[in-house]
Design a protein that fits this description.
SKP1/BTB/POZ_sf; BTB/POZ_dom; 9 strands; BTB/POZ domain-containing protein KCTD6; T1-type_BTB
């Protein structure tokens, strides 16, 4: 294999099935720490298992892997302020044998400057698809935004008035917006505009996740999740 082919292989997308959750990244990211289990696995020194779709399968906690993968991408550990699964994450870091992450999780220093906190926005898209339509038809799609950043919710309310006909409800003291049902083209347009608006408010995307599930014999539901974060300064009362 020449250098060009090897470089293409390192940057070529690869999908992992971690406990039923799918993650897409590059081999170079997975090999960031060569002495780790993932480094050995994608170097060919460790046996691999594939699922029915050909994705690499690892029978571990799929939700916590988002933090593992983000650490591989940035070499930084950033957790939500209300994160309560440090012990479980330590076990995952130990399983994957990522020594810098293990050290970071055992470091007593605070994860953030004391005068800052992290604001989180969750954007999810739920799409139900019919197996028997050709091409596959969208039965229903809806978008949900969840956050406690009230200024962002107010901005969405003010800037997306043309989508009000798709808004089903706001609940939990303006914590969550749900748009839908709408057709595929409306959902894509709305999602693109929402993601652009959230990014312009200073949020950066931390994690994406796709989950497939079958509800009936003739239907599939596909859920996409995006997590956005930004640091904000605490304001004294």
């Amino acid at each position: 294999m020449d250098n060009g082919d090897w470089g293409h292989r390192l940057t070529h997308p690869v999908t992992l099935n971690i406990g039923g959750n799918l993650y897409t990244t590059s081999i170079s990211t997975l090999q960031r720490y060569p002495d780790s289990m993932l480094g050995a696995m994608f170097r060919g020194d460790f046996p691999t298992t594939r699922d029915a779709q050909g994705n690499y399968f690892i029978d571990r906690d799929g939700t916590l892997f988002r933090y593992i993968l983000n650490f591989l991408r940035s070499s930084e550990l950033t957790l939500p302020l209300d994160f309560t699964e440090l012990d479980l994450l330590r076990k995952e870091a130990d399983f994957y044998q990522i020594e810098p992450l293990i050290q970071c999780l055992n470091d007593p220093k605070p994860l953030y400057p004391l005068d800052t906190f992290e604001q989180v926005v969750e954007l999810s898209s739920t799409r139900k698809l019919s197996k028997y339509s050709n091409p596959v038809a969208v039965i229903i799609t809806q978008l949900t935004i969840t956050t406690r950043v009230h200024s962002l919710l107010e901005g969405i309310s003010n800037n997306f008035t043309k989508w009000n006909k798709h808004m089903m409800d706001t609940r939990d003291c303006q914590v969550s917006f749900t748009f839908g049902p709408c057709d595929h083209h409306q959902e894509v347009s709305l999602r693109v505009h929402l993601m652009d608006y959230i990014a312009k408010q200073g949020f950066t995307i931390r994690n994406t996740r796709v989950h497939h599930m079958s509800e009936r014999a003739n239907e599939n539901t596909v859920e996409h999740h995006w997590t956005y974060c930004r640091l904000a300064y605490k304001v004294e009362d």
